Amino acid sequence: MPLINSDYRPPFYFRNGHLSTIYSGLIRRVDELEQKRERLELSDGDFMDLDWSYAPQPSKKVVILLHGLEGNAQRPYITGGAKAFNEAGIDACAVNFRGCSGETNRLFRSYHSGATEDLDAVVQHLNNTKNYDEIYIKGVSLGGNMALKYVGENRRIPKKVKAVIGVSVPCDLYSSLRELLKPKNYPYATRFRNHLVAKLFLKLPLFPNQISRDDIQNIKNLKDFDDIYTSRAHGFE
User: What is the pLDDT averaged over residues 162-170?
Assistant: First the structure.
């Protein structure tokens, strides 16, 4: 992928990547955004929750917002984007991936960066049931990977989809995982691992024949999580 020079320069206090990440994840607050939840039932019997916010005046444009690993539609980088789009006259549909809306999803599987069938379900829902003329997609991190993969696949995308934006996209997933496993990124990797393992313990009583307590306790890092759960739940080798 070509690197394009940008003239953007962050404020001096955000030139440190760790400070920028921590501020966005733990400190930043977005006020005065009202969201209304809609449950999207999926064809495999599962569901995703969509959190909607609207422009001040009726709009014919909507943006689908996709969060990153273990994020949700209430994270500031999503609500901040939704608020900015609303102020620009564009409705926002913020997607909670399977199991990310505060309620365990129904199936053993959950979400991953290549699950473009879930994004397609949202796009088709908006295309077929909502009165929009233009649909845009913005994905952050894992969500950006999903968005770019979606438009790069050989599938019939509705003509209403006009543009896709990817932010901080880990296009090379293996090298991104290797980077996360480096000692300097231990706090981030551990936080992800703890969130993901906690969700597996919620699935344990529902799917005792598909995963065991020993399996979960053997997950020491993100690579273990992929080997023990992601590959098994989603049919990867």
Answer: 95
| Cβ atoms within 10 Å, residue 88 | 11
pLDDT at 154: 76
Which amino acid, one-letter code, is at 47?
F
Contacts of 197 by beta carbon, 8 Å cutoff, 6+ apart: 216, 219, 225
Q: Are 137 and 156 in contact (CB under 8 A)?
A: no
* pLDDT score for 43: 98
User: Has residue 1 been placed in a domain?
Assistant: no
| Burial category of 24 from C-beta neighbours within 10 Å (exposed 0-12, middle 13-18, buried 19 and up) | middle
Say whether both 110 and 125 belong to one domain: yes
> What secondary structure, in 3-state letters, does 139-200 show?
EECHHHHHHHHHHHCCCCCCCCEEEEEEECCCCCHHHHHHHHCCHHHHHHHHHHHHHHHHHH
Residue 175 pLDDT > 90, yes or no? yes
**Do residues 87 and 104 both lie within one domain?**
yes
